[in-house]
Amino acid sequence: PGVFCAGEMLDWEAPTGGYLLTACFASGVVAARGALRRLGR
User: Could you tell me which residues come within 8 angstroms of residue 28 by beta carbon, excluding any fewer than 6 positions away?
Assistant: First the structure.
């Protein structure tokens, strides 16, 4: 419904101690693309 979450907002539990940089960047890209699609750009 127009809410886009990415990165550490998802609060993943991982053995890396919270440093999920690849997942943060990947979810950021997906969220940004979804937001742009929603805005019609």
Answer: 6, 7
